[in-house]
Each structure stands twice: as structure tokens, then as C-alpha cells.
Amino acid sequence: RTSSEEARGIAAPMRRIFGRTPAEYVGSSERALAVVLDSKAEEPKKAKSHEKLERMLKEMKFILYGDGDKQVDDKKVTKLIRELRTTELTANLVMNIEKLGFEVPKSVAKILTYWLHDKQSYSDAIAYFERHRQLIPHLVNNFEKEEIALPCSEIVKEALVHPKLLKIAFDTNDGEVVYKILDYLKNKDVAFASEAYTMLDSIINCRQKDPNISSDMQKEHQKLVAKWIDANYEKFWKRIHAFLDPKGSHLIMEQMLKLVYQVLKTHRNYNIMMKYINEPENLKIVMKLLRVQNKKIQVMAFNVFKIFFANPEKNEKIVDILLPNLERIHKFLKVGDCPVENLNLASSAAQLLGEDDDLEGKFEDDLQVLQEQLDELKKLQKTRQKQEEPISKSLTVPSYLGDSKQGDKEEVKGDPNRKLQYDGNICPIKSASLNQEHLLARHETKRVRLTKHLQTRNTDVLAAT
Asked: Do residues 140 and 151 lie in contact, with contact meaning Cβ atoms separated by under 8 Å?
């Protein structure tokens, strides 16, 4: 036997005792993956290589996570991360994840999420993803394949909490990955759609309750999200509102209302919020959802509605929608001494909001602000009514049966651009002179009819005589 043969003969049992080195695991995985992806390789050989690849990846996962009996060896972890960083194994696994069955993608996801999450190595992972910008779009596109949906989702969620990688996602085709994820929410499979929402939530809200994400990272993340939504305002909200149809899925509607609320209440999204709550169509969408026969959706919709209602700088169009509905809003809020009717929303809100810590702001705390705005709107309503009274009082409609004390006098005063209460109907008038001509024309028509009636009656009387 040659010295190399002797070395191999000794190395094999030594590996069984002490295990392979990280470099050997990575090298063996690369060779096995090459055979699996080789279209010319025979099926038995490909199957054997696939089994070997699956085994090697499980061993690498064991190095990173350990188990209950054996602790993690930090030196091996460092060496394995270095091998992953300096080879193309990771990129090749991700770009072919749809061809690797069920178990291999699960191991790939575990290895990558560790790499992206570990405080000592995530900077290397970010640099790797920056060099391979095609990885995130590829994972999002392959999320639709049921057998690998969860592994793809795990990697995407862990990657896009990092601002540098989020910026790459937003800059690629104007953030097409976000719209792709929104398309997945239309899927009728509840579990699939819910997992798609968790990806979207990680992008928009950066897992705000995760203690492993620093406040600086969250601030940078929110800044990028605000900038992207502002730049894609119309398209983004159009796609979000598509899920707020009262006839749609209640589960997705709940999730999207929660997302809308979180976007609007985020401090860095102040300009977006002010633009959103001053658009009448947005208010109409939310008010329709307050009538959905689902208490949790009503509470979620109320959280968005109260942002519109509590705004002290409402524009005229928003006020014009709210004023005719003040009585209903009053009853809905259950404030003052108004009798309780329909749903007792106030009592259920604390319970429902208590189940979800992400919905900040207690219902009871908001009532004082809302009551103040309600009082302001009531004052405005009374002021408008007083302004309209002189217009209606100044108009004297003549009696066409001859019993009017004013005779044929007609007078129109006040603001010609306001609405006039006439014969039980609200009719807009452009000017006092035009309205006067209209009334005179009506008066003349009735006068002619009355004259003809009297002439006919006189003729009948003469004939009878």
C-alpha cells in the first residue's frame, strides 16, 4: 500500500470517531450537489448523492445547533461559517432549492437562518447576500411551491429584517417581492396565506417585539419602509385595499386591518398617515368595515377609524362624511348618555385588544380624545345649521290659492352657494337670481292652471243656470 492509501485507510475510521471537519462537510456537499443537479448522471447515482447531501447538511446543522447531549463547539461553528462564506455552496443550494426534495430545503433554511441571526456572523451573511442579489427574489418566487414554502419563508423573514438586504429587495424592480407576497395572500389555503402574511409583516414591521433585533436596526428598517411606501403610495394602498372588501376572507381582512393600523401609527410614517386620513375614499372603506358582522373586524376597523376621527385638522371632505353620521358614530362609541344599542363594542374592545399586544393604545384611553372631537363636530354641525336657517327663512313661497299675505313677493337672501331646503328636498342653488327666476316660472305656471280652472267652473255654472 502507498502512503496515500494508508492515510486514507487511517482517516476513514478517524472520521467515524472524531467526525469530519467543517471544510470536509462543505466539500462533500458541493460534490454531492453537483451530481444531483447533473442532468446526465444516472438516477441511482443521483439518488445516492442526494442521500449524501441530506446527511452532510444535517451534520452541519448539528454543528451549529448541537443537541441536548452535546454542546456547540464555537471553534467548529466559526470554521463552518468561514467555509460557507468563501464557497458557492449556499448560493447553489438556494438557487436550486426547488429541485432538492423536502428534507434538504429544511436543513438549508436552518443553516441560513442561524447564519443571518447569529450576532457574531450575520455581517458575513449580509455581505454574502449582497454579492448574490438574486437569492431573495428566487426564494419569494418559489414560496408558491407547497413542499418548500416554509423553508423559503423562514429564510426571507430572517433576511429582510436587515436594512441592507431590505433595501436591495426594495430597489429590485421597485419592490416587486412585496407585491408578489401580496399576491400569495389571495390563496384560499388559510395556512399558506397566513404564512405569506408573516413574511409581509416582517418586511413592513421588522418584528418589533423581537428582543434580538436592536432598536437601531428597527429605526433604520422603518425609515426604509416609510421611504418606499411614500414612493409607491398609490400602488401600495390599492393592493392593500383589495383585501378590505367586506365580502372577502375575514381572516385576511383582520390581518390587513392590523397592518394598516401599524403602518399609520408608526412615528416615521407621519406624512403617510396624514395623507391617508385626509382622503375621503379611505374613510369610506373603513366605515363600511365597521358594519361587518364580525366583532373582531369591527374592533380592528375601529382602531383605524379612530385615527381619522381623532385628527384635529380634518379637511372639508372628511367632515362632510362624518357630520351626517354623527348620531351613528355617537352610538357606536358608546359615550355620553346615549342608550346602548346594537353591539356593545366598548366592552368587547378591551378584551380583544388585550389578546393582541401589537395593537397599542387602550380603548378607554382613546375615548376621551374621541369625545373631544365628537363635541367639536357637534358644534360645527350646529353652526352650519344656523347658517342655513336664514336662507330658508328669507324665502317666502307665495300661495297659489290666493291666501298669501305676502302676495306675489319672493325674496332670496344669504349665501347663494349653500344648499336650500325647499319642499322637503335639498336642492343646490347657484345664485339668488336664478332661483328667483325658477320660482317665478313655477308661480306663472300655477297661475295659468288656476285661471283655466276658474274659467271652466264659470262655464259649468252658466250652463247649469
From this structure: no
Per-residue model confidence (pLDDT) at position 415: 46
**Alpha-carbon span 54 to 253, nearest angstrom:** 40
Q: Which of 109-118, 376-385, 421-430 has the lowest mean pLDDT?
A: 421-430
Residue 370 pLDDT > 80, yes or no?
no
Q: What integer pLDDT is reported at residue 459 of this predicted model?
A: 54
Q: Do residues 136 and 156 lie in contact, with contact meaning Cβ atoms separated by under 8 Å? A: yes
Please tell me the distance from the alpha carbon of residue 312 to that of residue 278, in angstroms, as a whole number: 11
Q: Please state, in angstroms and rounded to a whole number, the distance separating the CA atoms of residues 391 and 418.
A: 9
C-alpha angle 57-63-69 in degrees, rounded to nearest 5: 120
Q: Please state, in angstroms and rounded to a whole number, the distance separating the CA atoms of residues 158 and 210.
A: 11
Count of H helices and E strands in the chain? 23, 2
* Three-state secondary structure readout of 351-381: HHHHHCCCCCCCHHHHHHHHHHHHHHHHHHH
Query: What tens digit of pLDDT does each residue of 235-270 get?
Result: 999 999 999 999 888 889 999 999 999 999 998 999
Amino acid at 321: I
Check if the beta carbon of residue 175 is closer than 8 Å to that of residue 166: no
Tell me the angle at which helices 345-355 and 295-310 cross, rounded to the nearest 10 degrees: 100
DSSP SS3 for 31: helix
Quote the cell numbers at residue 12.
Answer: 476513514
- Does the pLDDT value for residue 343 go beyond 60? no
> Given the C-alpha cell 391617508, which residue does it identify?
276
> Which of these, 101, 123, 4, lies nearest to 54 by C-alpha position?
101
With contact defined as beta carbons under 8 Å apart, do 57 and 29 qualify? yes
Return the number of other C-beta atoms located less than 10 Å from residue 270's C-beta. Answer: 12
Are the beta carbons of 159 and 168 closer than 8 angstroms? no
Dist CA 261 CA 266 (whole Å): 9
In order of 17, 19, 179, the CA distances from 13 in angstroms are: 6, 9, 53
Q: Under DSSP, is residue 93 helix (H, G, I), strand (E, B) or coil?
A: helix
CA-nearest of 288, 327, 289, 283 to 309 is: 283
CB 41 within 8 Å of CB 35: yes
Task: List the single range of 106-115, 263-272, 429-438 with lowest mean pLDDT.
Answer: 429-438
Q: At residue 26, what is the residue type?
A: V
Spatial distance between the Cα atoms of 139 and 177, rounded to a whole number of angstroms: 10
Q: How many CB atoms lie within 10 A of CB 202?
A: 21
